[in-house]
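task queued by scheduler; priority normal; single chain, no ligands, no partner chains; default sampling; output format set to C-alpha cells
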Amino acid sequence: MLSVQAISKSFLGVQALKNVSVDIRENEVVGLIGENGAGKSTLMRTLAGTLRPDSGTMTLDGAPLKLRGTRDAARYGIGMVFQEQSLLLNLSVAENIYLGQEDRFTRLGVVNWKAMRAAARRQLDKIGVDIDVATRTSELSFAARQMVELAKALTLEESVSRPLVILLDEPTSVLTSADIDVLFGRVTALKARASFVFVSHRLDEVLRISDRVYTMKDGEVVAEHRAGDVTAPQLHEIMVGRGLHTAYYKEPRQKAPRADVVIEAKGLGLKGAYRHVDFEIRAGEVVGIAGVVGSGREEISRTLGGFLPQTEGTLKIRGEAVRLSSPGDAVGRGIGYIPRERRIEGLVMFLSIAENITLADLTPVMRRGAIDYGLERKLATDWIRRLRIKAPGPDVACRKLSGGNQQKVVLARWMTAGSRILVLDHPTRGLDVGAKEEVYELVRDLSDDGVAILLLSDTLEETIGLSHRVLVMRDGEITARFDASPGSKPDQVDLVRAMV
C-alpha cells in the first residue's frame, strides 16, 4: 500500500537514513524498532511529510508519491501520532482534534462550535475515552493527551475514501496498562480499514501488536521478521549487538545506603493531590514510588522539584525544614529534577548541547566572571563521550537530537551541577533497551557517590530493580512499603495489590 525505496536523509553531515526500503501492506501493523538515533523518527517524519528525503522514492498503491507537508499526507490518508505530541495546550480538546480542519464547521466566517464538539466526541468514542471535549488541553494528563492525539489522527477517516496509514511514534510511552489495552484494541479493530506503523522501545509490545517488524541500526534497515518468528531477546541482540544482560538493572551493584538522612517528609500533603505522606531518603539510596496515574506520586515528585509546594506537613533537607516554592529553590538546595516531558520542561530546545548541560550551574565554566566557551564545549564533549550521546558535536541544538539523546543531556546537566538529590520522573521514557541499560549504570554510579534518588518509573519491573525501597501510593496516600534489597525484591503482584 505504502512503500519507500532506497531513501536517504542527512542532517549537518550526519547520515540519518541510508538507502532505507520499507513496505506497508494493507490491513497490517508494521513494527519499527531500533536504538535511539537509529533513524526511526526520521523515517516516520518522512512518511508523515514533515521531512523530504535527499534521495529515493515513495509510492502509494503503486503510484509515485511526493509529500510536500503534513497537509499532503493527510490528503492521502496518512496521519501521525507524535511521540512528543503536536497538541496546542492553550486550545480545547475539540479544537486540537480538528486543528487545520476548521472549515468543515465554518459558515460565513463563523465556527459552529457545537458541531465541532459533537464531531470531536465521536472521534474520542472510537477509542473509548471519556474526556470533555471543551476542556483546555493543558489540563489533561500526558496519557490523556496521547489519546487525543490518536483521535486527531483518526479524523482522516472522514475525509478520504482510501484505507488510512496511521503512524504511531511511541504512543504507549507513559500510558497505563489499561490505556494500552484500549489503544491496542482499537488498533486491532481498525486494521480492517487501516494500516499502522508502530514505533516502540518496548519489544514485547511490538511483538504483541505487530504483524511484521523492521529493525533499524545506524540509519539502515538491518532485519525484517514476521512477529511470530522472533522473540524479544533476539530483537534486542539485533538492535544493540549483544544479548540482554542477566543483571539488566545492575542489581549486583546495589549497595546499602549510608546512614545520613538527606530528605525527610512528615505528614506531607498537597490539597487535592496527596496527604499524610511520610518517607525518608538516605544518601546513596534509591526510593521508588509506584502507583497508577492519579495516585499522587507525580505530585510528590513535583513538590520536591519546587513546582507544587506542600500545603501541609514538613519537608526537611539535611535536617532543615524547607518549603520549596519554586524550581530555583529546589536547585539552590541541591535538587535536580529530570522531568518526563523533556522537550517542555527538561531542555531549551534551540540551545546547544553545551549550553543545556551548563544551564543549571555555570560555575564549572566561568573564568574571571565570564563564560569560557571553549571550556564549556570541552565539558560537553566529555559528557557526549561518557553518555554515548549521538551528535556531531557539542554545538548542535538539542531539538535536532533523538528523544533518548535529549534525555541524556538532561542527566548530564544535573551531574555537572553536582546535585546531591535527584528526582527521576520516568528517566527512561522513550529510551531503547541499550540506552536504558546505560542509564541504570549511571543510577548505580550516582548511588555509589552518595546521591539520594527519588524514582518514578514507567514499569514496576524497573522500579523494583533499581530501588532500595519501594513506596506504593493509592488515592493520594502511601498504602504499602517494601524493602527492595538485592535477593529480597518484592513481587510485582504484591505492589499491584497495594496500588489498586
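post-processing summary
- The two ends are 44 Å apart (CA to CA).
- Residues 433-448 form the longest helix (16 residues).
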